[in-house]
TrEMBL record:
<protein>
    <submittedName>
        <fullName>Transmembrane protein 39A</fullName>
    </submittedName>
</protein>
<dbReference type="InterPro" id="IPR019397">
    <property type="entry name" value="Uncharacterised_TMEM39"/>
</dbReference>
<keyword id="KW-1133">Transmembrane helix</keyword>
<feature type="transmembrane region" description="Helical">
    <location>
        <begin position="106"/>
        <end position="124"/>
    </location>
</feature>
<feature type="region of interest" description="Disordered">
    <location>
        <begin position="1"/>
        <end position="40"/>
    </location>
</feature>
<keyword id="KW-0812">Transmembrane</keyword>
<feature type="transmembrane region" description="Helical">
    <location>
        <begin position="402"/>
        <end position="420"/>
    </location>
</feature>
<feature type="compositionally biased region" description="Low complexity">
    <location>
        <begin position="1"/>
        <end position="24"/>
    </location>
</feature>
<comment type="similarity">
    <text>Belongs to the TMEM39 family.</text>
</comment>
<feature type="transmembrane region" description="Helical">
    <location>
        <begin position="183"/>
        <end position="204"/>
    </location>
</feature>
<feature type="transmembrane region" description="Helical">
    <location>
        <begin position="271"/>
        <end position="290"/>
    </location>
</feature>
<feature type="transmembrane region" description="Helical">
    <location>
        <begin position="246"/>
        <end position="265"/>
    </location>
</feature>
<dbReference type="Pfam" id="PF10271">
    <property type="entry name" value="Tmp39"/>
</dbReference>
<feature type="transmembrane region" description="Helical">
    <location>
        <begin position="145"/>
        <end position="163"/>
    </location>
</feature>
<dbReference type="GO" id="GO:0016020">
    <property type="term" value="C:membrane"/>
</dbReference>
<feature type="transmembrane region" description="Helical">
    <location>
        <begin position="65"/>
        <end position="86"/>
    </location>
</feature>
<feature type="transmembrane region" description="Helical">
    <location>
        <begin position="375"/>
        <end position="396"/>
    </location>
</feature>
Length: 451
């Protein structure tokens, strides 16, 4: 590798290696091979990436179809909690298990339109991708999105008009204002998040042969420090966008399917308030886990992990000693392990095989802390899902009312698929990154021997 090796006698320990962007560090991921790059003192600089196996990911249409079914089921169960009837009593005048005449039909159309909009969009987008020519595809997709938005807004306004005729206007205000205000605060005037929870570009090709979604963005191995920081900044922004969309989608579903029916309950109707609120919370937590599992698949977490390995971390050296040899930090230098630098009158020591982070930068520190161990995110989601399922099982064991047994059982079944996906992803990540950790520890031991 030209320019990568220097005479050790001319460089003392801890001297940085300034590698330009034209110098290859390691082949592009995910086909990264185990290669070595010699620093001035013979230390390894290139992180070792273990290839992640191909893990199936639900495409957008499949996920939205499942979300639509679960949301409709949750809304029906909430209506059952509110409008249940005692039809089995001898003196009862009810012939059905629910008081259907008390349910506002326009509210049902409103809920169905809100929960079905993303599925309809995914279905139309799949149809447009199949029939539209490649050169007209972006324009056709944008036109389809605008037309669908107009139809959805017309249906919602029609429902709101008749609901305002039958109910207090404040109830209509409570139904619309929270969702609209939160949406504009989070996304502005963009209409993309209203239909699509993914952050991929409008025109994205998928691997039709393997049936695995190609998660974007991809990681590009580099030993150019500014390029590494730019990639980390892009990944951090993409992670935050996915977080906002997942939270809005899950919270919006819980609000429309769980809270909206409660808003339009007649004043004379009595119901179990604690059970209704519990249904909303459990459904919302289940949707949060499902959307997070879809937004952060294994491949995407692996991209964040690889970028974190290249970014590295600085630890502040307490107790300043003027006799410790150090250098001024430079943003164009990729610093080897154990380098001592001065930045803003503070002394920092580099950790990891290489360090491109800015000393004292809190965003770089958080990125490395979160994604240096890639199983942390998936393990947190798995723990949340396990606790959720365990709580639902305990509630189900203590339930005696027929509608509560039915409601909790069906709500519990909807969480099993998410639990399966998270458990599978965690086991895969745990095995893969255990092997990677062994490789990194060996490389770290080789570095320590050369010091």
């Amino acid at each position: 590798m030209p320019g990568a090796r220097r005479n050790p006698s001319r460089n003392g320990p801890g001297r940085p290696l300034n590698v330009s962007s034209s110098t290859p560090s390691c082949p592009p991921c995910p086909q990264t091979e185990d290669k070595k790059l010699d620093s001035p003192n013979g230390r390894l600089l290139a992180p070792k990436h273990v290839p992640i196996p191909a893990v199936p990911v639900d495409d957008q249409l499949m996920f939205e179809a499942l979300s639509l079914g679960i949301s409709i089921l949750a809304a029906c169960l909430q209506l059952l909690n509110l409008y249940r009837a005692v039809w089995w009593l001898p003196q009862s005048y009810n012939e059905y298990s629910m008081n259907f005449y008390l349910i506002d039909p326009y509210l049902l159309v409103f809920i169905l339109t809100m929960v079905a909009r993303r599925f309809v969009y995914a279905l139309l987008r799949r149809f447009v991708d199949a029939v539209s020519p490649a050169r007209w595809l972006p324009t056709t997709q944008r036109t389809m999105r605008i037309i669908l938005l107009i139809f959805v807004v017309i249906i919602l306004l029609w429902c709101l008009y008749y609901m305002s005729e039958r109910h207090n206007s404040m109830k209509v205000f409570y139904l619309c204002y929270p969702s609209i205000s939160v949406y504009f605060l989070m996304f502005g005037v963009s209409i993309g998040p209203f239909f699509d929870i993914s952050t991929a570009p409008l025109y994205v090709k998928e691997d039709r042969k393997t049936k695995f979604l190609l998660d974007k963005p991809l990681h590009n191995c580099s030993l150019n420090a500014p390029a590494i920081r730019a990639e980390v900044s892009s990944l951090r922004s993409d992670f935050n966008r996915r977080l906002k969309r997942a939270l809005f989608a899950s919270s919006g579903s819980a609000y429309v399917c769980g809270i909206a029916p409660v808003i339009f309950v007649p004043q004379h109707l009595h119901f179990n308030f604690t059970w209704v609120v519990q249904h909303i919370v459990l459904f919302w937590l289940g949707r949060v886990s499902a959307h997070f599992a879809q937004a952060y698949p294994v491949r995407y977490c692996d991209v964040l992990h690889r970028a974190a390995l290249h970014l590295g971390k600085w630890s502040k050296v307490e107790g300043k000693n003027v006799h410790i040899p150090s250098q001024l930090w430079s943003d164009s230098v990729l610093w080897p392990h154990g380098s001592l630098v001065k930045y803003n009158k503070e002394l920092y020591r580099s950790e990891g095989l290489c360090t491109a982070a800015e000393p004292g930068n809190s965003s770089h520190y958080r990125f490395y802390a979160l994604f240096n161990n890639p199983t942390m995110l998936i393990c947190s989601l798995l723990s949340l899902q396990l606790v959720l399922v365990a709580v639902q099982l305990l509630i189900l064991l203590r339930t005696v009312e027929w509608y509560q047994v039915l409601s909790m059982t069906l709500l519990l079944v909807t969480n099993y698929y998410t639990l399966f996906k998270l458990a599978r992803d965690y086991l895969i990540c745990w095995k893969v990154y255990r092997a990677e950790r062994i490789v990194q520890e060996r490389a770290q031991a080789a570095i320590n021997l050369t010091q």
